[in-house]
Amino acid sequence: MIRAALSIFALVSLSFAAPSAPGWRFDLKKETSGIVALEAIVVSPTLVVFFDRASDDPLQVNNHSAGGALWNLETSTVRPLNVLTNSFCASGALLSNGTMASVGGDPNIFPTNPEIGAGNQAIRLFQPCDSPTGDGCDIIENPATLHLLEKRWYPSSVRIFDGSLLIVGGMHEDTPFYNTDPALSFEFFPPKEDTPRPSEFLKRSLPANLFPRIFALPDGKIFMVANNQSIIYDIEAQTERILPDIPNNVRVTNPIDGSAILLPLSPPDFVPEVLVCGGTQTDTIDPLLLTSQTPATSQCSRIRLDEEGIAKGWEVEHMLEGRIMPELVHLPNGQVLIANGGRTGFAAIASVSDPIGNSNADHAVLVPSLYTPTAPLGQRISNAGLPSSGIARVYHSSITLTPQGNFLIAGSNPNNHTVVGPGVKFPSEFRVQTLDPPFMFVERPKILSMPKKLAFNKSFTVPISVPSSLARPGANVQISLMDLGFSSHAFHSSARLVFMNGKISQDGKSLTFTTPPNGRVYPPGPATIFLTIDDVTSEGAWVMMGSGNSPPTLE
Ligand SMILES: *[C@@H]1O[C@H](CO)[C@@H](O)[C@H](O)[C@H]1NC(C)=O
Ligand SMILES: *[C@@H]1O[C@H](CO)[C@@H](O)[C@H](O)[C@H]1NC(C)=O
Ligand SMILES: *[C@@H]1O[C@H](CO)[C@@H](O)[C@H](O)[C@H]1NC(C)=O
Ligand SMILES: *[C@@H]1O[C@H](CO)[C@@H](O)[C@H](O)[C@H]1NC(C)=O
Ligand SMILES: *[C@@H]1O[C@H](CO)[C@@H](O)[C@H](O)[C@H]1NC(C)=O
Questions:
Q1: Could you say which ligand is closest to the alpha carbon of residue 88?
Q2: C-alpha of residue 353 to centroid of ligand 1, in Å
Q3: pLDDT of amino acid 152
Q4: Ligand 4 mean position to 140 CA, how many Å?
Q5: Using a 6 Å CB cutoff, which residues line ligand 4?
Q6: DSSP secondary structure string, 92-147?
Q7: Which phi-psi region, left, alpha or beta, contains residue 353 (left: φ > 0; alpha: ψ -120 to 50)?
Q8: Residue 166 lies in domain
Q9: Ligand 2 centre distance from Cα of residue 257 (Å)
Q10: Which of 11, 21, 75, 252 would you label with 521, given CA atoms 20 to 30 Å apart?
């Protein structure tokens, strides 16, 4: 009798608890992206720049299809950008002065959109924009005077310790499926030399080495992984140190896209660890021997980049499913969102023996997972409580953390031009969603004000408010300094989370924190600061980390 009574009580309390306990939600926006948002970068607290190929998108600028668009995070509306060069499969980042630079792209002119020129040597700028709605702000280009040293389609880039961009690899013109026309070099923007630096690593990692996954380490060196090879590149000494291969014949760069992320860096030592997930275990890259049904790998490989960690090599763990083209994105609390991609097939368009429409990939994964870096091996990945997006996001999709603390998700187009339903399994996808974490539906801590500019290695005190639900002694307080990255081809260039030491005052009204020691730990440039208390994250505060000066230029 007592047992029965108890279980009825448990049921009753459950049915009361369920509706009020907030979970993760996908939220479909009314307005569409107008272009296929295959690249995305947050450029201000309210604005995201999207890029697509110069094709036949519905969103028009000057009476032709726009190559770029500005998404307003406050109103969920879009307006076209006037992109002059084809930004298809480009990379980019924010520079130390807050300017966004998009680099490289597609050499081809789209027959029905000849207004947009070749983009493989392009540099496109979006200057810091103070208007919350982006009024008067547009892409600035001058292909004749401002361009890369080498042609690069499918390059990667990362902001480095002096606030400039290191630009890595890519191909020159056109190749079928994999890299047969490689740009085997590095260069900088602004340039540091008159000629690109040759790279043995890029040679060794052929032919599946497009969009290398690269990270600026806290000592200023650069970690790179392409195909199944990895190195640490010393920009100053111009040397490379070869690290162990990704285990088990798993390859992780385009057209065999896995993804990679630099795990959160924590004081006092900021020991870097890299996580690489997805891709495919394969010996061949001959598209005729590959199919849209070839299983992607569930393998994640993780390495700690100090001497002891390098000696130990890669530690292997597994996602809940295989994923080609997964996205790995930081949450401000240090977890990593694993989203999007497919369970089988490859990146690129209509090249395997049996594409689905034009898609080399199939079996879109609709339910994201969370990776908890601090959990024990084997217990780090879960999709408990995560909903289905209902929308396939395969090749040419993007996702980014926003300053509001949720994720903006758009794009997908494994087609050479705009292809829409009915009966098309993988159409050109214009629908935009956010993925909203549970903390979006409860009272959140607030950062009430923040200096616009923060110097390195300094302590700051700012006013905050903490809801009573979170005001408890011993609460877990995290202060994260983040670069939200440039999302392109299942990789978030320059994405970074540096935890800062700090504490909340006794009265709960102010937060004191210490910025990273120098520009190697956080390359100088824009950053978003979030305050998280017991996994409830504030909206981010947009700051300039460092002087805000332009990166050095070649004399
Ligand atoms: C766009 O086309 C319309 C109709 O052909 C024309 O009236 C208008 O001036 C054009 N606008 C631009 C910016 O070229
Ligand atoms: C990496 O790829 C190369 C070239 O295909 C192969 O010889 C090597 O065995 C692979 N390494 C591992 C650890 O699988
Ligand atoms: C798509 O374009 C590529 C080159 O840009 C070409 O090789 C391929 O045949 C095209 N595929 C389709 C389905 O049109
Ligand atoms: C940071 O500041 C502390 C004193 O507050 C000083 O001891 C330390 O050397 C500084 N570190 C750097 C990298 O400048
Ligand atoms: C930032 O630096 C870049 C590279 O030198 C330059 O092109 C751009 O105009 C600068 N932006 C501002 C706002 O000074």
A1: 3
A2: 44
A3: 98
A4: 39
A5: 457, 517-518
A6: EEE-TTS-EEEE----PPPTT-TTSB--TTBEEEE-----TT-TT---B--TTTSB
A7: alpha
A8: 25-439
A9: 16
A10: 252
- Is residue 73 within 8 A of residue 403, CB to CB? The reply is yes
Instruction: Establish if 11 belongs to a structural domain.
Output: no
Q: Is 196 part of any domain?
A: yes
Q: How far is the CA of 456 from the centre of ligand 4 (A)?
A: 9
Q: How confident is the model at residue 11 (pLDDT cuts 50, 70, 90)?
A: very low
Q: Considering every ligand atom, which ligand is closest to the CA of 115? A: 1
| 142 within domain boundaries | yes
Shared domain for 352 and 480, answered yes or no, is: no
Q: Are residues 384 and 524 in the same domain?
A: no
Distance 86 CA to ligand 5 centre (A): 21
**Of ligand 5's atoms, which has the minimum distance to the CA of residue 125?**
7
Q: Is the pTM of this model over 0.85?
A: yes
Say if strands 453-454 and 541-545 run parallel, antiparallel, or are unpaired.
parallel
| Concatenated DSSP letters of 489-523 | SS-EET-EEEEE-EEE-TTSSEEEEE--SSTTTS-
Q: Are strands 213-216 and 222-226 parallel, antiparallel or unpaired?
A: antiparallel
234 within ligand 2 shell (Cβ under 6 A): no
Q: Is residue 5 part of a domain?
A: no
DSSP state of 62: T
Which residue's C-alpha comes closest to atom 11 of ligand 3?
Answer: 350
The atom number, within ligand 2, closest to the CA of 229 reads: 1
pLDDT-derived band of residue 211, with 50, 70 and 90 as boundaries? very high
**Is 484 found in the same domain as 520?**
yes
Ligand 1 atom closest to Cα of 62? Answer: 13
CB-based contacts of 227-230 (< 8 A; 24+ apart in sequence): 227/251, 227/252, 227/253, 227/256, 228/252, 229/201, 229/204, 229/205, 230/303
The closest of 553, 546, 492 to 98, measured between CA atoms, is: 546
